Amino acid sequence: MTSQTTTENQTIQDSTSGYATVNGLKMYYEIHGQGKPLILIHGGGSTIQTNFEKIIPLLSKNRKVIAVELQAHGRTSDRNADLTFEQDADDIVALLKHLNIDKADFFGFSNGGTTTIQIAIRHPEIVDKMILGSALAKRNGVPDWFWGFMAQAKLENMPAQLKDGYKKVAADTNGLQVMHDRDANRMVNFKDIPDEQIKAITVPTLIIIGDKDVITPEHALELHRQIANSEFAIIPGGHGQYIGEITTITPDFKESDLVVPMLEKFLDKKPTK
């Protein structure tokens, strides 16, 4: 389906959405704007809109933003298999091949950041630059309570905004429990990404977290030290507040609080010779 969307400054951009058969999934994607491709990869329990609704209109003014929904999330189907970050990475690359995109920038948030790391490890040829928003690479990158919480995770404790966001778009809302359980099991079974794999990443990388994030500053700083060609920023706020993630929106929300100018500055930076 194709539609026209109008941004606040009345510039008109092309927006399309669709499904692709990818590795046994019916995978949903949206394309906004024109220009160099930027792939947005959502976090656990999320949809395109719950993570990125606030920043897509801004980022798509100057580039082609391609947002995806991963296995069991939002409008994308489930397969009879546990979630893994490696499989998510392969699914996204297969989708991009379907869309005839051989190189792109990537922005992954939370679990999507971990998936983005796997794309850079497994498919470095497709990555130009990557932004890791609150990404986890090691179990010690979050406080100890996180793992106990995940081991006891229940659907009723999932943020209402994320449950509502899923129900708003999913063809079958009975999949909510499946999505929740697959996400929780993936985190319970999460294993450290080996140092040598992280150190082998050479693409220009921007690492960002909030100062009240679930990801620890020490972890983000260690990622910065291990990825040689990287920049690092700590932004005031909680997990995803810097992009207007739906659970962080407060009545005093302002577009000017978002980190879009920082993202664009990084993405537009020419490589130094």
From TrEMBL:
<dbReference type="Pfam" id="PF00561">
    <property type="entry name" value="Abhydrolase_1"/>
</dbReference>
<dbReference type="InterPro" id="IPR029058">
    <property type="entry name" value="AB_hydrolase_fold"/>
</dbReference>
<feature type="domain" description="AB hydrolase-1">
    <location>
        <begin position="36"/>
        <end position="147"/>
    </location>
</feature>
<protein>
    <submittedName>
        <fullName>Pimeloyl-ACP methyl ester carboxylesterase</fullName>
    </submittedName>
</protein>
<dbReference type="GO" id="GO:0017171">
    <property type="term" value="F:serine hydrolase activity"/>
</dbReference>
<dbReference type="InterPro" id="IPR000073">
    <property type="entry name" value="AB_hydrolase_1"/>
</dbReference>
